[in-house]
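Q: what sequence does this backbone want?
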């Protein structure tokens, strides 16, 4: 059996790609921005903020959670979502390194 394409890259490269893919939809960016604004919320609150069906919002929440961008706790019959600061720290470090290297770069 052959290796998958992701096997040819480092764990860090794969992690950044998963995070970037999850952020690659404007609805997910809007969900992140909403969670930052309110600090925590339940799924119903997010549905009221976006022009999307509840099932669509749930799918986007699932993608964000799978990428580690958000975390959720069950509270009764609802799930309370919030930002996963550890993943955003990974992004901060990754992009800070790029900015540092490109700032000092003398290229075209």
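A:
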């Amino acid at each position: 059996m052959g290796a998958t394409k992701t096997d040819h890259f480092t764990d860090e490269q794969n992690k950044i790609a998963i995070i970037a893919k999850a952020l690659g939809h404007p609805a997910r960016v809007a969900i992140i921005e909403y969670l930052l604004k309110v600090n925590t919320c339940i799924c119903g609150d997010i549905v009221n903020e976006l022009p999307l069906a509840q099932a669509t919002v749930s799918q986007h929440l699932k993608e964000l959670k799978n990428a580690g961008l958000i975390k959720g706790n069950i509270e009764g019959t609802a799930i309370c979502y919030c930002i996963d600061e550890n993943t955003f720290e990974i992004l901060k470090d990754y992009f800070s390194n790029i900015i540092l290297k490109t700032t000092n770069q003398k290229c075209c």
